[in-house]
Structures are given as structure tokens and as C-alpha cells.
Amino acid sequence: MKQVLWFRRDLRVEDSALLANAIKDVLPIFIFDKNILKNLDKNDKRITFVYKSVLELKKKLQGLGLDLSIYYDEPKNVFTKLKNDNFDEVLCSVDFDTYAKDRDKEIESIIPVKRFIDSFILNPNSHLKKDNTPYKVFTPFYKSLSMITQSNNIQEYTHNKNLNKVDFDYSSFPTLEEMGFEEQSLPDYLYKGGLELLEEFKAKVNKYQDERDFFYIDASSKISVHLRFGLISPKQVFNYFKSFNSTNCESFIREIFWREFYNYILFHFPHSEFNNLNGLQIKWNENEDDFLKWCEGKTGIPIIDAAMIHLNNTGLMHNRLRMVVASFLTKNLFVDWKKGEEYFAKKLLDYEASSNIGSWQWSSSTGADASPYFRVFNPYTQSQKFDKDGIFIKSIFSDFENIEPKLFHIENGLQSNLFVQYPKAIVDIKLSRQRAIDKFKEVKNEQF
Ligand SMILES: Cc1cc2nc3c(=O)[nH]c(=O)nc-3n(C[C@H](O)[C@H](O)[C@H](O)COP(=O)(O)OP(=O)(O)OC[C@H]3O[C@@H](n4cnc5c(N)ncnc54)[C@H](O)[C@@H]3O)c2cc1C
Fold first, then answer.
1. CB of 338 closer than 6 A to ligand 1?
2. CATH 3.40.50.620 assigned to 2-119
3. Which end of the chain is more exposed for a tag (fewer CB within 10 A), N or C?
4. Atom 36 of ligand 1: nearest residue by CA position
5. Helical H runs in 297-352?
């Protein structure tokens, strides 16, 4: 029996379902998938991160007496060759978005595939309500998991020590340039390991609940990119914090389960990848100019523009800011959440289909457990509350260094200063809020 261990978004050797479930003779592989890469910009930072992580994985596997064969190809070509080389089956972790499901179906027609839940804690299929239907609301979902969430440890996989590296050519390693990408500089924390980040966050976890919304403070774990590409598993994150038995990590653990919840929702309601889960049929504003101004950070609203410029420059955005810009796009500009979701998918370093789709539907009041439609964040109130002194806004707009912060928190406040060059706000916040609420009300009355 010769098995292929197909590493995809689980780039680690600890708590690895593949290394635990493999039997003996194995070929670990990673494929830089041409079908995915062809749609990305050549300066996509995620590819630099994945590339460096694949190199590290290769070294770690070598440390276990194994190795990693690396391809730049379409998966179907790789597996057709491996089938001809007499490999019997493939082990991989499972993903529930449409591209991943279609890809895996195609591979299964070439060679048998065994899939494991390895990027999430829960198997979404094995957790239903008493009436055998899936949960749609986070709080009861979370409460129903108390056996897990209140435990101090979730068992991790240990790797099978009897694995043999099969004879193979492990030397090929496409360069970033050969794949059409340029090496990018990454935020410093992405050069650190997952456990190192958790160690750093441990000192802050007590204050997490109180400080997590203040986007000028470095108060969150910054673990999302490592989780996305599986450099650390969610079980490892959970166990790490439970191991020092801090009651203050409760709110942080809850967030980890929002990630589980959105994956669960995508699994049970796959149509929500492209459609409003709550079934509302909304006629959105199709004005491309409004959307482009939002993307480029040219809306004339300081907090929105600073957040979007930061995203465009770094691939990062704080959770509170994601909620504020998503509410602004879908409520004040009344633009379809799918356009915002796609834009985030292109830019976010931690882009994860289920979390992104679920969170956009939450913000646009179109999801399962969504924010009520009349809840529209006022961006000026948000910046007043969470960036009173304009520390974040000034970090993006250096020209505003000497501006009185209160001007950031008033509609067209900056524009009242004759020495500042800044566009007028593209919408009146109160009027656009009311327009969105009226439209939602109308659609709900008509359709429900
Ligand atoms: C519109 C919108 C889009 C989003 N898109 C993504 C995405 O593509 N990928 C992504 O990982 N997160 C997404 N989030 C959730 C959240 O913003 C990020 O997980 C968080 O900012 C990452 O920073 P952190 O690791 O420091 O988070 P922490 O606050 O330290 O949280 C720890 C972990 O919990 C999970 N988590 C926290 N909040 C959420 C949430 N609301 N939903 C799901 N999981 C959560 C993440 O895995 C995160 O790394 C989105 C939120 C919004 C409002």
C-alpha cells in the first residue's frame, strides 16, 4: 500500500490527521495549484507566505525521516501521474467550498481519496439539533458544544512513527518567479511560528474582552493567517489556552468557535456561498463608482478610507473595522455583500471562504444568525468610540498628523478645514441609513 499525503491548508506536522492516519509507505506532496494561482495578482502576499511555509514543512518532514514533493500543476495532472506510479490512495483534509468540493470529486475519479476534518475542531455532519436539523444560530450552537468548550483538552493527533518515505524525486521546487509571482514583504508577525504568537498573546488574553474592539491597540491574537493555512490547528490553539486554565480566555475561545460555526453553516447550507442564506431577494445598488470608491478608500469618511487603504497596503484589517466597512458598503451604499466578499477574498491575508461569507452575511443582515437589518453602524460614532484620538487614522494618513481628532468623527469634519485636501463624504450617513432600513422593511414585507 503506497499512500499520497496531500498537504493543502494543513501545513504542519503537529496534530496532523494525515501523519496520524497514514499506514507505512508515504509520499507527502504539496501542489501549487495552477487553477487557483492563475486568478491571483503577481504581488499576492499569500503566495509568499505559503511558499515560505511549504519550505518549512519540507524541513520538518525531513526531520521526521520523510520529505515533501512539490508541484506546480493542476491537481488532476499530478494524480494521473501518481496513479500511473502505482500509488493506491490519497489522504487529505476536507474543505467545503465549491472549488474544493469539485476538485476533490475530480481527483476521486482518478484515485481513491480519504478525507479528514483537520482544519476545524468539529465534524459539521455529526452535530445536529434534537430534531436532526442543523443549528442556524450561534448561541445555541455554542451552548450545545459545552462538553467540548468546557473541557480542558481536545485530543490531538500524534503521528505514526512507522512511516517510510517512498523512493521518489523530491528535488523539484518551482521558484516563485517560475510560478509568476514576486516575493513580497510580509507583516513581521508572519515570520513567527503559531506557538510563538500564542505565547505573545498569552500576556494579553486577560484584557482581550475589554480591548479587542479598539483597533489602534494590538489586543488580538493575530493567529488567523496561521489557522487559515494550518500552521497551527484550532485544537492546538484551544488546548494551549486551556492548559493554563485561565477563566479569562473564555471570550477568546468563543471566537474560535465562530470560525467553527461559519464552517458548519457553509457545510449545511452550501448555497449560502453565493446566495443570501435568509432567502431575501434584494435589488442592490449597482453603481460601480460607489463600489470603487469604497475599494480604494476614497469615500470621504476617514475611518472607512483608513481601513480600506490599510487593507490594500497590507492584506490586514482589524475585526471591528471589517464590521464597520462591511456595514457601510452593504447598508449606507447598499451594495451587494458578494462584491465586498469577493474584494476581501482578493485582499485578506487570512481569507477563509466560510468565515468571510458568514461574516459578510452577518453584516448585511442576509445570513443565518445575522445582525438585524436596522442595525447600521455609524462610522463616525465607531471612530469616536474606538479611535477617539485618531491614532489609527493618523497612522494611515500622515498628512493629518496635526489635525484635531474630533474632526475625524464628524460628517465632513475634515473638509471644513481649508488646509486639508480630502473628498466630501459620498453619502449622508443618516439619510443612507434610513434608506437601507426602508428597503429592507419593504423587501421583508413583500417576501415574508
Ligand atoms: C466582514 C468580515 C469578514 C471576515 N473575513 C474573515 C476571513 O476571511 N477569515 C478569517 O479568518 N476571519 C474573518 N473575519 C473574522 C475576524 O475579523 C478575523 O478572524 C480576525 O480579525 C482575525 O484576527 P485575530 O486572529 O487577531 O482574531 P482574534 O480576535 O484573536 O480571534 C481569534 C480567532 O478566532 C476566529 N474569529 C474571530 N472572530 C471571528 C469571526 N467573526 N468569524 C469567524 N472567526 C472568527 C479567527 O480564527 C481568529 O483568528 C471576518 C470578519 C468580518 C466582519
1. no
2. yes
3. C
4. 255
5. 302-314, 319-327, 337-347
Closest residue by CA, ligand 1 atom 22: 224
pLDDT tier, 19 (very low <50, low <70, confident <90, very high otherwise) = very high
Ligand 1 center to 349 CA (angstroms) = 11
Domain ranges of the chain: 2-119, 120-154+198-268, 288-447
Whether pTM > 0.90 for this model: the answer is yes
CATH topology identical between 120-154+198-268 and 288-447:
no
d(CA 316, CA 338): 19
Provide the CA 371 distance to its chain's centre, in angstroms: 19
What b/e sequence results for 183-218 when a residue is b if at least 16 CB atoms lie within 10 Å of its CB, and e otherwise? ebebeeebeeebeebbeebeebbeebeeebbbbbbe
Q: How confident is the model at residue 245 (pLDDT cuts 50, 70, 90)?
A: low
pLDDT band, residue 445 (cuts 50/70/90): confident
**Ligand 1 center from residue 319 Cα (angstroms):** 6
**Residue 170 grid cell:** 523530491
Question: Based on the number of CB atoms within 10 Å of its own CB, is 398 exposed (0-12), middle (13-18) or buried (19 or more)?
Answer: exposed
> How far is Cα of residue 292 from the mean position of the Cα atoms in its chain?
22
Task: Look at strands 113-116 and 2-7 and give their pairing.
Answer: unpaired
Candidate of 138, 249, 259, 318 to mutate for ligand 1, largest count of ligand atoms within 8 Å of Cβ: 259
Question: Looking at the domain that runs over 288-447, which CATH code has it been given?
Answer: 1.10.579.10
Convert the pLDDT of each residue in 372-412 to its tens digit: 899 899 999 999 999 999 999 999 999 999 999 999 999 99
